[in-house]
Specification:
Layout (H helix, E strand, L loop, with lengths): L1 E6 L6 H9 L5 E3 H11 L1 H11 L4 E2 L2 E2 L1 H10 L2 H24 L4 E5 L14 E6 L2 H12 L3 H10 L3 H6 L3 E4 L3 H19 L1
Parallel strand pairs: 1-5, 1-6, 2-5, 6-7
Antiparallel strand pairs: 3-4
Helix pairs in contact: 2-5, 3-5, 6-7
EC number: 2.7.1.24
Protein name: Dephospho-CoA kinase
Pathway: Cofactor biosynthesis; coenzyme A biosynthesis; CoA from (R)-pantothenate: step 5/5
């Protein structure tokens, strides 16, 4: 199965663009969403996260995100330890999901690809970009968060310029109609490449 990575910085519009691909019957796996679901569902992950963060890692059976975020904020090494618990489980979940798909190719949405040198996991990479100011405004509105917080996440991610160089396709998502048109072109270009 051909796996196409759908990447881009925070608020670039990955999920929005993924939906346009879905309209061509292309299945989309959203790694972050599945990771969150597994953290609530998997008994093994739950046990290991409680070992790592303590009993307050879960509250009323649900992952206690603010608590985890505050622990990670004061001890950055906890993030890589948490990822070492969660990522292998997401990888095997993705493998099982992939086996069930019947499509010319699938998309896997993941914000982090180049930052962790994971390019080899994909046959092709599509990057979604948009002007920084638009991204900040969109995320502030979507998540009811501050400009400062969004900007600090952007500053921690690789620049669009560097990511574009390493991608096969670029979608400019300042304007939805333009982006939609590009999805159509890229979808057909991918079909052409894998034929
Ligand atoms: P994240 O990295 O945080 O997961 P993302 O890259 O998946 O974000 P989306 O969630 O698709 O981005 O988009 C961020 C917000 O911007 C959403 O509220 C979405 O509806 C809105 N949005 C996306 N593209 C556009 C656009 N072209 N015009 C206006 N709003 C947009």
């Amino acid at each position: 199965m051909i796996v196409v990575g759908l990447t881009g910085g925070i608020g670039s519009g990955k999920t929005t663009i993924g939906k346009y691909f879905e309209s061509y019957n292309i299945p989309v796996y959203i790694a972050d969403k599945e990771a969150k679901a597994l953290m609530n569902r998997s008994k093994v992950i739950k046990r290991k996260l409680i070992e790592l963060f303590g009993e307050y890692a879960y509250k009323d059976g649900k992952l206690n995100r603010p608590y985890l975020a505050s622990k990670i904020f004061s001890d950055k090494s906890l993030l890589s330890k948490m990822n070492a618990i969660v990522h292998p489980k997401v990888a095997s979940h993705f493998k099982r999901w992939l086996k069930k798909q019947d499509a010319p190719y699938v998309l896997k949405e993941a914000a982090i690809v180049f930052e962790n040198n994971l390019e080899h996991q994909y046959d092709y990479i599509v990057i979604v970009v948009a002007d920084e100011e638009l991204r900040i405004e969109r995320v502030m509105k979507r998540d009811d968060t501050s400009r400062k917080k969004v900007k600090s996440i952007i500053d921690n991610q690789l620049s669009d310029e560097e990511k574009i160089k390493k991608s096969h396709f670029v979608i400019f998502n300042n304007d939805l109609d333009v982006a939609k048109q590009q999805v159509e072109e890229i979808h057909h270009a991918i079909l052409q490449k894998i034929k």
